[in-house]
């Protein structure tokens, strides 16, 4: 603004605002975002002062005392790392630690994998499973532009939003048979057949989130045949290897079968749940290639993508996983601890089921014990789920998903009584 003397006078931001001019430095144009459906529930749980409150919204393992767990094998690995004077805090390369990546490949594809023997898998260390999904989406955007990623309906909500934010087209395929609380195989196969040849199909490697319903071996084989005939690329999201059945090999059945049968694959891998390394952000993104030369080119491009996203991944979590996977004793201890976590969850399913039967809660509850992995898709309606939160202080998702990992001997009866109440009265 000019003064009478013709010199510039400073203009206050409030004056600009009253003149209807928005100053960019005020960021008044930024609307408040809604809370994240999963992380937002935990924020509400933290703020709740009711002593009965229970958090079964977030997929994080709890001990039977309701406490977060650091695995013994992880503590031991950390001690080894701390005592190792040859380690330093220098940067990793963009693709991460190559020894770690090779161990992760074996865990996914198996020790005897022909693909690995032939050097046909490109793998980069990532910021856990979410980072792997985002890296994969960036890769699709550059090297398969316009190709849609087909995602199960329902799914872990971030699958859709990652594709959205990365600018990758995505579409749903049918997965859930609401009436029978089971897999809608016919609907799924129809949608995979109707997708254009060479589409990308996101599959949950084990312990489907949120339904807890995985295809049987026979159903996986049928899915594979359709994907093979259509030339689809299958993207296994492996966030729960070992959590579904307690066995790493069983939970890798579909991925290994598809790999053996020569289907082109993407794999996003997370060590959040099975190693309890949630906040350490440890994972990988892999893809299968036609030749070992292509693996080199693909890795060089992934280096560039990563360089411009976050430069290079953190070291500590990958060092933990590397130490455990390469030490036979620690590896066995980890497998035992993984089995113990999955058994505790299975036990809680049984206790919750028995209690609902004892209360004669209306409806069938067999799905609670049939479903596997961290979650139970209870079948509660959005209104009933809301009442669980608002009336009973049991924080679960609006789609009826309960994290069984948060159910304990101490709260299971309270949860069952609350379910009984909302089913009868809401
Ligand atoms: C299906 C699925 N994929 C990926 C992830 C990624 O989790 P994180 O980024 O913590 O590894 C999760 C976490 O809940 C998940 O459920």
From TrEMBL:
Entries under Pfam families matching the protein: Aminotran_1_2
Essential cofactor(s): pyridoxal 5'-phosphate
Documented EC number(s): 2.6.1.1
GO molecular function, one term: L-aspartate:2-oxoglutarate aminotransferase activity
Reactions this protein catalyses: L-aspartate + 2-oxoglutarate = oxaloacetate + L-glutamate
One Gene Ontology biological process: amino acid metabolic process
UniProt keyword annotations, A-Z: Aminotransferase, Pyridoxal phosphate, Transferase
Major enzyme class: transferase
Ranges for domain Aminotransferase class I/classII large: 52-419
Family to which the UniProt record says this protein belongs: Belongs to the class-I pyridoxal-phosphate-dependent aminotransferase family.
Assembly mode: Homodimer.
Other comment: In eukaryotes there are cytoplasmic, mitochondrial and chloroplastic isozymes.
Protein name: Aspartate aminotransferase
Organism whose genome encodes this protein: Cymbomonas tetramitiformis
